Amino acid sequence: MKRFYYILLAFALVFSSCEKQPEPNNGNNNNNNNNNNTEQPGGNTTPQEPETNWTYYYVNNFAYDLMDTYYLWKKEIKSQLMAWKTDEEPIAKVKAIRYKDSSGNDIDKWTQVTDDYNAFMGSVTGVTTTYGYDFFDFAQDKQNTNRVLATVRYVYPNSPASEAGLKRGDVIEQVNGKDILIIWQGTSGYLDTDFIYDQMVYSSSCTLTLSDGRKVSMTAREMIEDPVTIYTVLDNGEKKIGYMHYTSFTAESCYTLIEACKEFKAAGIKELILDLRYNGGGAVVTEEVLMSMLAPRANVEAGDIFEKEIYNSEYAAQMVKWYGEDAGVSRLAFQHDFRFDGKDYHFNTEDANIGLEKVYAIITDDSASASEALICCLKPFLPVVTIGKQSHGKYCGGYIIGSDDYFQDIIDYYTENTTSQSAEAIEFGKGGLKYAKNWGLYVMFSRYADKDGVTLCMPNGIKPDYSAVDNLKDGYQLGDPNESMLKIALRRADFKVPDQSSTQQQAPARYEQEVKINFQRREKPGMVRQFTLPQGYLRDRELQRISNDQYTPAE
Length: 555
Fold this sequence. Notes:
Blueprint: H1 50-70, H2 78-82, H3 90-97, E1 112-114, H4 117-125, E2 127-130, E3 133-134, E4 138-141, E5 144-151, E6 154-155, H5 160-163, E7 171-175, E8 178-185, E9 188-191, H6 193-200, E10 205-210, E11 215-219, E12 221-224, E13 228-235, E14 240-246, H7 254-266, E15 271-275, E16 282-283, H8 284-294, H9 297-301, E17 305-310, H10 313-323, E18 329-331, E19 335-340, E20 343-348, E21 358-363, H11 370-378, E22 384-388, E23 396-402, H12 403-416, H13 422-435, E24 440-449, E25 466-467, H14 484-492, E26 511-512, E27 517-518, E28 527-528
Parallel strand pairs: 9-27, 14-15, 15-21, 16-28, 21-22, 22-25
Antiparallel strand pairs: 1-24, 2-12, 3-6, 4-5, 4-26, 5-7, 5-8, 7-8, 7-10, 8-9, 10-11, 13-14, 17-18, 17-24, 19-20, 23-24
């Protein structure tokens, strides 16, 4: 096994005997494929290059096999699984068949195929080529109503953005000398997603023109984005309280989380403001590390259950067979040993358990998945007061599975374990490595709940105990007691806030907030669970792969 969260499944397939050059299915083929489906797509499919056909073939087999085993709503989409064809574009296919309500609205908004697995993984590990800033707050410019202004929400420490002097509240007017244009469709305005990502996120360099006249030039570099953007002890002379802004549950962030919690403990902190605005989740193992420092020491020492996972019925039965009563159960612990993206991590949090009596969690509609799970699973152990806006409502955990490791595992296994299938299986694995390189699947496999079976954010998110607005124009930086959301949290904690701050800056005033601007932000992994197989386990080898009968040999 190359990495613990890549699942060795493909041994179940009946592999193609030789590499044939496929031709697109034009809707007139009546061959019966191995998943007992004979219905072909209606009309003519778009002609594809032979290499693209083979990419679709291998990626569809890869995605089908995994969803047929782990998908949380497998029973509900069984008919769509049975109708899966290998000549369909896999990204669109998975999006089309993931679980929906009776009106066709996505219940599962997160399961997805990606053709750039390495970039997708960067948001979970924290290691990525980046400028190190977040700007996803758009509003129409009053002075030029055909464009939007983007506002910086936060900047990662020691990043190209921070070194260039970019800060929260800076308003971006242009990118590389170009406006961020609104695409009008009637009275609705849409943004060009490709322009924004290509120019502002994934480019190697860019120059931003800000509303105060500055031009900020940055060169992206590979770095660890430390999602603990700030942690501090606030002290007004009468009371001390901890504050930490945390943007993503990455594996690498455990180092800073432990450092922060040790500092809070040393300061005698009993209450913590945990700022989870913009935090879309991440690795579940990181949630477990943080839980062990926030929960009462006695519960951690006792190894109490803090989270349960609910699976599809077939996978649940298999999990019980493997793990007995502890199937799908997570327990509090101080020792954390895991492997993530090829790196081993070993953390002990016993000296970092703060001894908290209360937590104030700041949330917005960008707070999702592991952020919501942390709040949900911490509540049974100590008071958690939520402040802000209703959270996102992502109540599922997912596996991230890379196609390269999936197909390489096939080759490795059948090289080491010779069977009558070995030659065909190895050929199949090599074909997958050639044509499906760097693809991946993020598949929802569980619904999480607290120790009592409660999923607090299902179906539409956690409603805050107290409302607060994330005001990027208030002129204050994160961590400043006068910053809008933090100030409300401090008041709820009976912490008196001074009226002035040295970080106050002039707020921009050119936004038109009445116009709704639509932007489809690219989904990031929300809650990633590691996966290990019991020694010697293999899927049922009788399971058939999707047929490639619609393909014919090249002349």
